[in-house]
Design a protein that fits this description.
- By secondary structure, the chain is of the alpha+beta class.
- It folds into 4 domains: 220 residues, Heat Shock Protein 90; 129 residues, Ribosomal Protein S5, domain 2 (2-Layer Sandwich), CATH 3.30.230; 92 residues, Rossmann fold; 101 residues, Four Helix Bundle (Hemerythrin (Met), subunit A) (Up-down Bundle), CATH 1.20.120.
- The protein has 24 helices and 22 strands.
- Helix 1 crosses helix 5 and helix 12 packs parallel to helix 15.
- It binds adenosine-5'-triphosphate (ATP).
- Adenosine-5'-triphosphate binds next to helix 2.
- Belongs to the heat shock protein 90 family.
- Keywords: ATP-binding, Chaperone, Cytoplasm, Nucleotide-binding, Stress response.
- Its main location: cytoplasm.
């Protein structure tokens, strides 16, 4: 292997330049966070080393006293943050520091508005990481060496945070990473031991790793004078200050303390440390479980959804510790996907420290811990919903669409998750998702046996669906579903509290005892009346539809399309089609049923229409309208416009 010694100058990825610029300008009032970010990175690096060393303790190379050191130099105007963690190779430096390889980056840049206040919030949500050094520094020098590599294989990265950085191979005696911040003009407040200590305490007090600073201590006079009682020469000499290392944080793992000894601030600052989030958490659960499986968990719900929530590659937010030693943050099996936004730690005593990743994957204990942890999280969400509906609404607006994956993914907790769901409905008729299924059931009409819903591509498509007409007329509440996941959700959630969930746009509408007897009698007569019209319409539409029927659900619109009761809803077909899972047209599902409203004047007019071609035009127009009013797209919009205009022109004569 050739070691690249030459110093090279490399350009930042465009996104990095952009991020740096934004950060320097928008985080100015919060500049002390650079310390938290760099300490968090150092602590992660130490965690990684500790884990690797479990199977290869040579990596410690005689130094297992893991810590982060902070020092400052008033003359040079520098702050130095050093860790003896895992370190990086030259290639890793180039990969991690100089590019943003994070998931969610694209979404982040798309979300930026150019408005400072909003963007600074977004930056916080995205996570500022290493680059936050440039909030206070106009030059940053990072020197690092990977644990286990040779002294000659250190790498030095240096940049002024503008367009480029340099990278060279250097000698480095100790493994780990040293970051020197050359402070900008006017940032001298950080060249102060008291200031640094107070920031560290504020942000990083309860991380399990010691953060040390040097302290000057005066030698004690008494000891001196006794020992050197006869030595008159020495007793006159001025005492020389000695340097002692002092740990400036509590360095106790927060989760091991009793709940009553932990303040809300402590919880919040620990959250920011584990999650690398910038905002306060929404809520948390801290619990110690005893028994055959012993573990402690401290889990949080963030206030805002991360940018990578929909990214399959996204990092998992729950870190696994075994007896306070970090093992992995890649333990997919610790939280199900529908709770992937949960951040925090689970620390167990029930597994051996030298457990391998493969064993973890199959471990029964881990799956028991997971199911216990999921119950705790559900409990936390239940009590949030009960005790703080406003916060729960915030939670739902951020994570509701993910929670809706719950009943699909997690059968054993289906009932509990179902109670956490919130929907929009015709009750408030707004797009706010705030109706719990329990609320819906509580408002059900006498004689109502089912929970009705309609799905649509957008909220307004759902809200304005013609299928709702009879329900609005009778004052029956219908859930308005327009999130992508809703179609899958309702296909897995067929009942709640013993009540069947039923689409208002599928199959034969059965209103049960809600239907008026008189209506039913009338319908039979009307049916006879329209028999030949129905047949004629079917002839015109051919195999575009499976059947033409008189509608019981329309009161205002002339016609609508209804999916087969066992088939996919038309909205679902559209979603599948977009996702490329269907070959052309409505190929996969059954053809829809075309329902017409006999009390609509246009439909009534068809009964007397003598001109076959006008009848056909009218039929096609009603059919296309029905597609449009569902939010669908016409195969041949020009033909629709042409036919419609033909009829409209009739009005001119
Ligand atoms: N002190 C360090 N020791 C070893 N590796 C480090 C250190 N600091 C940063 N890194 C590496 O650089 C990467 C990028 O760091 P950065 O702080 O920008 O983002 P991050 O920590 O991954 O994400 P976040 O925004 O959540 O902090 C880290 O993931 C890590 O691999």
């Amino acid at each position: 292997m050739t070691v690249e010694v030459k110093k090279e100058t490399l350009g930042f990825q465009t996104e990095v330049k952009h991020l740096l610029h934004l950060m320097i300008h928008s985080l100015y009032s919060n500049k002390e966070i650079f310390l938290r970010e760099l300490i968090s990175n150092g602590s992660d690096a130490v965690d990684k080393l500790r884990f690797e060393a479990l199977s290869n303790d040579k990596l410690y190379d005689g130094d297992s006293d893991l810590k982060i050191r902070i020092a400052f130099d008033k003359d040079q105007r520098t702050i130095t943050i050093t860790d003896n963690g895992i370190g990086m190779t030259r290639a890793e430096v180039q990969e991690h520091i100089g590019t943003i390889a994070k998931s969610g980056t694209k979404q982040f840049f798309e979300a930026l508005t150019g408005e400072q206040a909003k963007d600074s919030e977004l930056i916080g949500q995205f996570g500022v990481g290493f680059y936050s050094a440039f909030i206070v520094a106009d030059k940053v020098t990072l020197t690092t060496r990977k644990a286990g590599s040779d002294k000659s294989e250190g790498a030095r990265w240096e940049s002024a945070g503008e367009g480029d950085y340099t990278l060279e191979t250097v000698e480095k005696a100790q493994r780990g990473t040293e970051i020197v911040l050359h402070l900008k003009e006017g940032e001298d407040e950080f060249l102060d031991s008291y200031r640094i200590r107070s920031v560290v305490r504020k942000f990083s007090d309860h991380i399990a790793l010691p953060i040390v600073m040097d302290k000057e201590v005066m030698p004690s006079y008494e000891d001196d004078s006794e020992e050197n009682a006869d030595d008159t020469e020495k007793s006159d000499a001025k005492p020389v200050a000695q340097i002692e290392e002092e740990t400036i944080n509590s360095a106790s793992a927060l989760w091991t303390k009793a709940r009553q000894d932990i303040s809300e601030e402590d919880y919040a600052s620990f959250y920011k440390h584990v999650s690398h989030d910038y905002q306060e958490p929404l809520t948390h659960v801290h619990s110690k479980v005893e028994g055959t499986n012993e573990y402690t968990l401290l889990l949080y719900v963030p206030t805002r959804a991360p940018f990578d929530m929909w990214d399959r590659e996204a990092k998992h937010g729950v870190k696994l510790y075994i007896r306070k030693v970090f093992i992995t943050d890649d333990a997919e099996q610790l939280m199900p996907r529908y709770l992937r936004f949960i951040k925090g730690i689970i620390d167990t005593n029930s597994l051996p420290l030298n457990v391998s990743r493969e064993i973890l994957q199959q471990s029964k204990q881990i799956s028991n811990i997971k199911s216990g942890a999921v119950k705790k999280v559900l409990g936390m969400l239940e009590s949030l919903a009960k005790n703080d509906p406003e916060k729960y609404a915030t939670f739902w607006s951020q994570f509701g669409a993910v929670i809706k994956e719950g009943p699909i993914e997690d059968h054993s907790n289906k009932d509990r998750v179902s109670k956490l769901l919130r929907f929009a409905s015709t009750h408030a008729n707004t797009d706010k998702q705030e109706v719990a299924l329990e609320d819906y059931v509580g408002r059900m009409k006498e004689g109502q046996e089912k929970i009705y819903y309609v799905t649509g591509e957008t909220f307004s498509a759902a809200k304005n669906s013609p299928h709702l007409e009879i329900f609005r007329k009778k004052g029956i509440e219908v859930l308005l579903l327009s999130d992508r996941i809703d179609e899958w959700l309702v296909s897995h959630l067929d009942e709640f509290d013993g009540k069947h969930l039923e689409s208002v746009a599928k199959g034969n509408l059965d209103l049960g005892s809600l239907a008026d007897e008189e209506d039913q009698k009338n319908q039979e007569e009307v049916n006879k009346d329209f028999e030949s019209v129905l047949k004629q319409i079917k002839d015109v539409l051919g195999d575009k539809v499976s059947e033409v029927k008189l509608s019981h659900r329309l009161t205002e619109s002339p016609a609508c399309l209804v999916a087969d009761v066992y088939g996919m809803s038309l909205n679902m077909e559209r979603i599948m089609k977009e996702a490329g899972q269907m070959m052309g047209g409505m190929g996969m599902g059954k053809k829809p049923i075309f329902e017409i409203n006999p009390s609509h004047p246009l439909v009534a007019r068809m009964k007397t229409e003598q001109d076959d071609s006008r009848f056909a035009d009218l039929t096609h127009i009603l059919f296309d309208q029905a597609i449009l009013s569902e939010g669908g797209q016409l195969d041949d919009p020009a033909a629709f416009v042409h036919k419609l205009n033909g009829l409209l022109q009739g009005l001119l004569h």
